[in-house]
Specification:
The complex is a heterodimer. Chain A is an alpha/beta fold. Chain A folds into 2 domains: about 110 residues, 3-Layer(aba) Sandwich (Rossmann fold), CATH 3.40.50.720; about 180 residues, 2-Layer Sandwich (Dihydrodipicolinate Reductase, domain 2), CATH 3.30.360.10. Chain A has 10 helices and 13 strands. In chain A, helix 8 packs across helix 10. The two termini of chain A are about 35 Å apart. By secondary structure, chain B is an alpha/beta fold. Chain B folds into 2 domains: about 120 residues, NAD(P)-binding Rossmann-like Domain (Rossmann fold, 3-Layer(aba) Sandwich), CATH 3.40.50; about 170 residues, Dihydrodipicolinate Reductase, domain 2. In chain B, strand 11 and strand 12 form a beta hairpin. The longest helix of chain B is centred in the last third of the chain and has 20 residues. Chain B is globular. The two termini of chain B are about 30 Å apart. Classes of the chains: A alpha/beta, B alpha/beta. At the A-B interface, strand 7, strand 8, strand 9 and strand 10 of A face strand 7, strand 8, strand 9, strand 10 and strand 11 of B.
Chain lengths: ~325, ~325
Amino acid sequence: MQRTVGLIGAGGIANAHLPALLDLGFDVVVHSLGDDADALVARHKGGRVVAGLDALFEAADLVDICTPTTTHYDLASRALSHGLPTVCEKPLTRTLGEAEDLVARFAEAGVPLFPAHVVRYFADYAELHRAVSRGDVGRVAVQRHTRQGRSPRSGWYLDEASSGGVLLDLMIHDIDIARWIGGEVTRVFARTNVVDGSQSTQAFLTHAGGSISVLTATWTTAPIEFRTLFEVAGSEGLLHGDSAERRPFRLEGNITPSADILPDFSPLTSPYRAELEDFFGSVTTGVTPRVTARDGLAAMRIADAVARSVAGGLPIDLEPTVEEVPAA
Amino acid sequence: MKIAILSFAHLHATEYAAALRRCGDIEIAACDAGHAERPAEQGGKALADALGIGYFATEDELWAWRPDGVVICAENVRHHELALRAAAEGVHVLCEKPLATSAADAAAMLDAARAAGTVLMTAFPVRFSPAYAELRSAVRQGALGRIVSISATNCGGVPTSRDWFTDPARAGGGALTDHVVHVADLLADLLNDDPIEVYAIANAIPTPAPVETAGLLSLRYRDGVIASIDCSWSRPPGRPSTGDLVTLTVVGTEGVAEIAPFADVLTGWNGHGALAHGYGAPLDDLLIRAFREAVRTGEARQPDGLAGYRTAALVEAAYRSLTETAPVPVRMSQET
């Protein structure tokens, strides 16, 4: 039986989720807090716009929240009140307290909540995790993860209070990846520098097994291409990835770069499709997905420690929590 | 001009010997008296003969030869004593990095050279990299706008050709001692400033050793600029050069610049495996030529002893941070 997904939001990330949901065979109803839902549905030639949230929750079997960060908590709470399994864009919530509350209430109700840490579904990072799990680098010793791009030029991302800035928008991805690869984090130290519309955060993590990581997230007003890099070194070897280095396609010349922040959809390579298939598939099969609510909460705990370290200038010790699952 | 090489403990001595020979106008001799204690390693008179340079069995004989300058390539902890002797002998010094294993030792070396009127230089060949010169010029011209952050790396393998690198009594430390200073020197020169605070974390996972083999530093400057340094010995043995021994990424409000001074590598493969041949600028020759000019004129060239001191003070603070598991202030007793 075809299931219906209630997609909330019609901005950047909804443009990646909607074609994936359609390709996966879902019926999709869309509601946006803005006025962009019609355009989204028209662009992807699928989905139906519904008038309000009540109509969306009424029609939906599953919920996919693709809205600005500060709205996640309320929207997810409403989805929970309807007992609907919910995908929530990262970061799970704007504050750690909200994330703890949300994860606890979903768990209590036995309703699945999926934080959309999509980088685990990007082929290069998935391959990195497979290789490290296989033992290619031996025992992990040092990780470097870098994520840099042009500062957002408009919208809610620019507002630190709404987006959490470069930390919650960009670094949260590498926080999740570093923990996925290196295990639980016991100590965090971080610095941020903001110069006009540009900012960098550098975070230094100590993992439970003694390995160390440095994460760098940057938004610059300079017109640079978005880029991700990683290096994972261990007792037996080293793995390295750079989105600017291994490019199956390269074009230079008299071209106007596309304004889209996301690449065109392909069912074979879309990490968003793989993520949504894993999440919504697990609702049916009961198989634990690659990223769980606990992972999303752990990422928020580390991000919160990064923010506190930046504010106080001191390292923050993280106590392991009983419900924490060991990293792969 | 007569230049002596003091010890083959650091294998860079062989590069410097070759560069000195290429100058064509220098009498070169070496003393590697310490070789008796590490007979299994390459060194002593046999190595001097192979390099085509003179040899003295004892350091006293070498001083008696009255060299105009010495290149100190002894174990790190001996740099201090040898530089003080050179100053006492009125001899100019190019000292392998790190200049010293403590800020106090480095300061004493600077003071001794100043008092004697001799030159003290630190062997930071990367400073001569054309890539670095371009970066410096781009930054100075404002091409990057205001600097936001810098990420620096100097990652190699665990040194295996010499035992002393992983012996704290002779090296003074591990990866932090060995690999922070090159990029710290570039940062100091590039920003024309020293960090005011450092935080460090380290482990010995890549290769269990009595010293740290992996390390990360976090720096903060008074104008708000932040920087990270990865100084890990994290390259597994047998890895072909991929040209990333040293890297610097500078993020500015108007641009992002990256350098990899050793990226000039011809890569390929044959039936025996991967091929990797560097063809970058001859940094050791440029360093040795700068030292030769310093000896000829009696005036220090960059990178000087002060450059070595600044980096030694930073490394000392990084070790303090490791002990205190907290960020610590970086203090310079010398005027920088």
